[in-house]
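Renewal narrative, Specific Aim 1. Our central claim is that a sequence can be written position by position from structural information alone. The example that follows is taken directly from our test logs and has not been curated for this report. It begins with the structure tokens describing the chain, in the order in which they were read.
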């Protein structure tokens, strides 16, 4: 991804000028085309780490970078607005979650904070009892903090009031940077170090169901990293792959539909009644969600240890491990194109025509897939 025209220093200076939200008209590069995809725009968002997560508010993408600059990016044009620079010591440890006037970060002391750039009197700060896994997760007006000891804490986004706390009977999380819960309306699905997939009501913290991914070759799941990276939920079925090598799907009540040892550790994506994932050997697989029957397989799809698998319509988007994305037909597994990127993928948001991709090089790209 190419560098954008406006530097981070300019954004920060404008934010500190005290003249309200800063409008920038030339802060992004115009698009270019490659391998069945078009990069509509690229915007420089400054230094980002593995725990910087984007949040979409209608046509606006919200992000706080490691320097504490709050960025609002127009998803259609890439135009950047920087309403504030958060004033505190040290880098932003993690960020995720936004409203029309608030952005959420986690500081070096392990406290979650909401910064209101319109009315700082409405800021709030809560010290976490453990280490945060991944980034704070926003579901509607609720902010979730998933901690390394298996605790899930829910806060009211606007006030910081604790809404509920859930203590999961799990071993300590061992985080390696690939942890992307799946949000479905007022529910969230995420996995734990022991290969348990939880589906939780975010309004009251009720566990709707839980299911276990168990690898028969690894009877002690705590012996190896088995965290579920990124599950998917569709049509009453939830599917996931764990770092212990197990993959499978569950029904609406948490009942296992099937499980297999596929040595897959990346995110999974359900399209047209099939779950798609990449095995440890780099093979992209399409398996029926109801019974695990193989529809097709494509070897050499990725060399990434824990690849992203996303979707755009009837195309699958796979992080190929060679600093790029490859596109495959969901119906056949045939390669349909690809695009090269300059950095590792930190976060992504699926759009109607493609993806918003945040790279480790500090560039946010809007990619349209043909």
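The sequence written for that structure reads:
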């Amino acid at each position: 991804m190419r560098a954008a025209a406006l530097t981070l220093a300019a954004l920060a200076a404008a934010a500190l000028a005290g003249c309200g939200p800063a409008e920038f008209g030339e802060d992004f590069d115009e698009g270019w085309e490659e391998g069945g995809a078009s990069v509509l725009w690229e915007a420089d968002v400054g230094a980002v780490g593995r725990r910087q997560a984007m949040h979409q508010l209608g046509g606006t993408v919200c992000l706080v970078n490691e320097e504490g600059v709050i960025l609002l990016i127009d998803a259609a044009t890439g135009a950047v607005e920087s309403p504030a620079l958060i004033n505190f010591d040290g880098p932003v440890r993690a960020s995720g979650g936004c409203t029309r006037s608030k952005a959420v970060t986690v500081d070096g002391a392990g406290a979650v904070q909401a910064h209101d750039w319109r009315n700082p009197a409405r800021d709030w700060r809560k010290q976490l009892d453990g280490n945060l896994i991944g980034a704070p997760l926003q579901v509607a007006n609720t902010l979730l903090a998933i901690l390394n000891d298996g605790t899930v804490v829910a806060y009211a986004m606007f006030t910081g009031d604790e809404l509920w706390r859930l203590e999961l009977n799990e071993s300590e999380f061992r985080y390696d940077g690939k942890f992307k819960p799946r949000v479905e309306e007022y529910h969230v699905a995420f996995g734990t170090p022991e290969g348990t997939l939880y589906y939780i009501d975010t309004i009251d913290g009720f566990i709707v169901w839980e299911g276990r991914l168990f690898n028969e070759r690894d009877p002690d799941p705590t012996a190896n990293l088995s965290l579920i990276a990124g599950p998917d939920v569709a049509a009453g079925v939830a599917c996931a792959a764990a770092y212990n090598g197990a993959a499978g799907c569950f029904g609406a009540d948490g009942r296992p539909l099937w499980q297999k040892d596929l040595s897959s550790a990346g995110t999974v994506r359900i399209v047209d009644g099939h779950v798609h994932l990449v095995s440890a050997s780099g093979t992209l697989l399409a398996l029926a969600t109801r019974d695990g029957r193989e529809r097709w397989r494509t070897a050499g799809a990725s060399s990434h240890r824990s690849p992203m698998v996303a979707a755009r319509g009837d195309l699958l988007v796979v992080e190929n491990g060679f600093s790029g994305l490859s596109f495959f037909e969901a119906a056949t597994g045939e390669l349909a194109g690809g695009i090269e990127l300059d950095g590792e993928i930190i976060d992504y948001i699926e759009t109607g025509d493609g993806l918003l991709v945040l790279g480790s090089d500090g560039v946010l790209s809007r990619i349209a897939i043909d």
